[in-house]
Write a structure and sequence with these properties.
By secondary structure, this protein is of the alpha+beta class. Helices cover 32% and strands 26% of the residues. It folds into two domains: 112 residues, Nucleic acid-binding proteins (OB fold (Dihydrolipoamide Acetyltransferase, E2P)), CATH 2.40.50.140; 304 residues, Bira Bifunctional Protein, Domain 2 (BirA Bifunctional Protein, domain 2, 2-Layer Sandwich). It contains 14 helices and 18 strands. The strands form four sheets. It has an eight-stranded mixed β-sheet. A five-stranded mixed barrel has the order 1-2-3-5-4. Strands 7-9-8 form a three-stranded antiparallel β-sheet, with no helix packed on it. The structure holds 4-amino-1,4-dioxobutan-2-aminium adenosine-5'-monophosphate and magnesium ion (MG). Magnesium ion binds next to strand 17.
Length: 448
């Protein structure tokens, strides 16, 4: 239970109100008199009775005001509260299986903390543009709060997994002198007398240095891509976790990725049952996410596309239609490995069995959610990487430090990046990843 929050809130309670309890903890207080501190979600009043749905950020509780139990002033006040009025209620908790959370509060007193004008977001349907412009208020809706709590658990599961698996977290810089994932989507800025700097697209190159120092590392933070694409899967600022492991090959990377994804899904199923229900997520689909994940090569995936008649040019990278079509063949995430080296990043190790392919892997989520992980084994040979920098027109000076990792004790190594928003969208079953981050940054949106 949340005792800290009770202590914090005592001093802001009205005279004579008992300690506040957070809604998620109410069940332990059946029969007791408590205070709830929150906001009005919805109110229905008929004759001698008013039903107030009060939310406090941890859940929603039905509070019932009976005219006969209250002074005329308190009953009138209960009937007058409008949506998102902040209020404190005092009352006795009773079990009620029909109420959300299984408890109901019989109101004895009610104090209004602040009542403003009509809340802009009502129960009626609003368009996505209006909702995004009011994102600071939209966050209060049941659905958005449920997504925020799932995202929190996704991030917690990510940290737990790596912390319990012998990884050391290392923070990668946000300002970088060079590109990691191609030069077409860099956010550029002037960095004093040092010339151009860029917002990081990925912490990977830095994690490679850290892996040579610590063996198993991960970074976890925001990354930036000046994506000109206006799709439901792209943000310009998104969160990525990037593990990197020394003495690891592509198979090791895939083993790690599948264990990791299963852990995150299992954790959310265990911790977010209420949220997933609120989101009407079909959790039977998530229950199927178990190791081993199918592993198909790019060539095998291309054959699937051909058989299904999906438009595709052999040799190209996959876009959403190809990812969705391949993933639809499986009931759990599928790992597509060995894409053509040509369409992938400069740092990938070529397959010794076929140098036209890279030792890389994309993990595609089922149910049309597409790529959630990209990664693979890194080129560990100095001469090869030097040639790749030339081929990709990347400035060698900016990468000297990276080349040093191949000059001093180079070893086979690899890792991957998992996007938090795409993973959260998949687990929640929400269509657009803009709802999975509190304040999404997109091509046409930077407000609020
Ligand atoms: O496949 P990506 O570009 O891989 C990398 O950045 C590697 N350097 C990671 C590594 O090996 N350490 O991106 C990895 C993941 C994608 O699978 C996707 O989940 C997410 O990051 N991602 C995005 N999410 C939201 N909006 C975007 N614009 C994204 N671009 C990538
Ligand atoms: Mg990718």
């Amino acid at each position: 239970m949340d005792t800290a929050s009770q202590d914090q809130t005592k001093s802001v309670l009205p005279e004579g109100f008992p300690p506040a309890v957070r809604i998620k903890d109410l069940k332990a207080h059946l029969g007791q008199e408590v205070s709830l501190q929150g906001w009005l979600y919805n109110m229905r009043s008929k004759g001698k009775i008013a039903f107030l749905l009060v939310r406090d950020g941890s859940g929603i509780c039905q509070c019932v005001a009976f005219q006969g139990d209250l002074t005329p002033e308190v009953f009138a006040r209960a009937q007058s509260v409008t949506q998102e009025t902040s209020l404190v209620v005092r009352g006795v908790l009773r079990g009620d299986e029909r109420s959300p959370g299984g408890v109901e509060l019989g109101i004895k007193d009610l104090a209004i903390v602040h009542q403003g004008p009509e809340f802009p977001i009502g129960p009626k349907e609003h368009g996505p543009d209006f909702l995004l412009t009011n994102r600071h208020l939209w966050l209060r809706s049941r659905k958005q709060a449920a997504i925020a709590r799932v995202r929190h658990q996704v991030k917690r599961a990510i940290r737990d997994f790596f912390d319990n698996d012998g990884f050391t977290q290392v923070d990668a810089p946000i300002f970088t002198p060079s590109a990691c994932e191609g030069t077409t989507n860099l956010f550029e800025l002037d960095y004093f007398d040092e010339g151009k700097a860029y917002l990081t697209q990925s912490g990977q190159l830095y994690m490679e240095a850290a892996a040579m120092a610590l063996g198993k590392v991960y970074c976890f933070g925001p990354t930036f891509r000046a994506e000109r694409s206006k799709t439901r899967r792209h943000l310009t600022e998104f969160w990525m976790v990037e593990p990197e492991v020394a003495y690891c090959d592509l198979n090791g990377v895939m083993d790690l990725a599948e264990r990791f994804v299963c852990h995150v899904v299992r954790h959310c199923l265990d911790k977010c049952a209420g949220e997933l229900k609120e989101l009407e997520r079909d959790t039977a689909k998530l229950e199927k996410v178990l190791t081993p994940f199918p592993r198909v090569s790019y060539d095998e995936a291309a054959a699937i596309l051909k058989r299904k008649g999906v438009e595709f040019t052999y040799g190209d990278d996959f876009g959403a239609p190809q990812e969705v079509a391949v993933a639809a063949e499986f009931d759990r995430p599928v790992m597509v490995h060995r894409f053509p080296a040509q369409v992938k990043a400069f740092y990938m190790k070529p397959d010794p069995a076929d140098a036209s392919k890279a030792l890389c892997v994309d993990v595609l989520a089922p149910e049309g959610f597409g790529e959630i992980i990209g990664g693979g084994q890194r080129a560990d040979d100095l001469a090869y990487l030097e040639a790749q920098l030339v081929k990709h027109k990347l400035p060698k000076e900016a990468f000297e430090w990276y080349l040093d990792l191949r000059r001093y004790g180079s070893v086979p190594h690899g890792g991957f990046g998992l996007g938090v928003e795409r993973t959260t969208a998949w687990i929640c079953g929400v269509e657009h990843i803009r709802e999975t981050i509190a304040f999404p940054r997109m091509l046409y949106r930077i407000y609020p």
